[in-house]
# Entry
Amino acid sequence: MNFDTALAEIGELAATIVHEVRNPLTTIMMALNAFKKLELTDRFQEYLNLSLDEADRLERLLSQILLYSRPQTLDRCELELNSFIAETLNILQTIPVATGKHLNFSANNTPLNISADRDKLKQVLINLVTNACEAVNTGEAIAISI
# Structure
């Protein structure tokens, strides 16, 4: 068996596992979301929120595993990094997890032109900022610099 065949088989296995785990996870998430309509005590509301957060985290993990099951290709283009990050952060300011958090971007003094896959780089930036927003409290700042 050659390396490419082995990778293809691993990718196929990963896709099958993700599919099989995602089906019951979807049902669990539907049930948990249904509980949001109920009047719950603070303790049980906290359990519900924790369960929903963990289910979302599991869904993100499954999506990341699925990325490894597919061959990745890059669609490179020329980007000016300062403006690209500023544009992306402007959009990210509006996502729910960033509410009440301050995204402070320190651009480089000179333009930074790079060759990159715009969509993949944007996803990396979204993941980093989302993780940072989840790690800080409301009112705190997140510093982004290049």
DSSP finds four helices and four strands in the chain. The first strand starts at residue 76 and ends at 80. The chain has a mean pLDDT of 90. The CA atoms of residues 8 and 69 lie 8 Å apart.
